[in-house]
């Protein structure tokens, strides 16, 4: 697939296909591998990779393989839904982390997936699959359910109609169940994913609102199912979500009494 | 400047110039502004920005201005010197943060600048200029001095010969002084920047080693000069740096007795 979505690939789309050739499990590639994965003739891959490397979008390591470069990290740090969002949220994520010393997630919705913007994990925290910059189907996770529940009706209906990937026997498996859960999340203001990604992990998530009072992100705490009660985590996750919303300038968080209590 | 470094700009270099048009203080740009900053005809800017936006490298906001997109954040998350390094370091940065509840920095060297990979700050921490993805002259900061002291001789000599930007009257101002300080950092294993960026901030940094036992990054703690003694921070910063080096698989951190003590 090219950035132009069909038709004769442009140079721009080829450059983007080269960037797309890299993935978490393929973070270091030779020019031949890049060419193959991007569907480019070796000579073209050579020329474009050379330009990308000179600029710093790619870095060549000692054994001649290429990796994503620091310069791209610098540019990406300007993404409003990336580090910019993360920076506003970080102090509150810290507070949330210190409340449990397990895992804290900050994520945004992209299509029917969540993309993790931040993850804070203790060395001995319960294992989670999330990775900063990583994607995960929204229907299975605490952050994802919090985001889906407040997404546009069209997005919600697409999620309800879509095949729901199953991770455990507790993963939401039918559109009807997802519809019910999303309504529940809107009613309670929190999303609970208990053993729906991994049987031993419990996630409690809450929506984060932006300056336009629309949901901009979601924050969640992930702990071992065994030994934790979701109800005990709801207040702190909710307070954290409100704090981040306030930091983002969400009117509803500025006027909310819960926020006032949180501030005292 | 284009990615090809002169000559007729290629499409690739134009795409990269478009990305380069965005900066921390210019995070949202109209197509006209992008064209002007990237030195492109409006029609060209229109076409290239359109392709970048379709792929997700740029995002168009409600008022029609463009920002760096989430997709670029996803790709940049694969940069080994970016989030990958950060992920290995994070648990140790957490420990370091909890030791002072001020500021913790993780940075790498790029030319004569440091680029901040991670920053953890308490809401009420002493003010620091650092920003994830941001750059700062290496000679002024704790992380920077720790990195420069262990950089190649050519890099050190360039730094010593270069004009040294002055931030306060305590900023290292002469090549001779910088040379002396770098030798001191190598001798003690820690770098101290006291009031050299802002008069009221004290930074203590230490080098982080990679799998090849070369310095891969530096970690630092930044606290108010007033009320903190650098000597009290040296052990915890050193222990943190060794812990991160060990997590990165640095042989010297695996065999070091200090590390063993740190593990007990």
Automatic annotation (TrEMBL), chains A, B:
Keywords: DNA-binding, Transcription, Transcription regulation. It comes from the Bacteria. PROSITE patterns: HTH_ICLR, ICLR_ED. Residues 9-70 form the HTH iclR-type domain. It holds the Pfam family IclR_C. Coiled coil: none annotated. The keyword Transcription regulation applies. Residues 71-250 form the IclR-ED domain. SUPFAM superfamilies: GAF domain-like, Winged helix' DNA-binding domain. PANTHER family: HELIX-TURN-HELIX TRANSCRIPTIONAL REGULATOR, ICLR FAMILY (PTHR30136), HTH-TYPE TRANSCRIPTIONAL REPRESSOR ALLR (PTHR30136:SF24). This is IclR family transcriptional regulator.
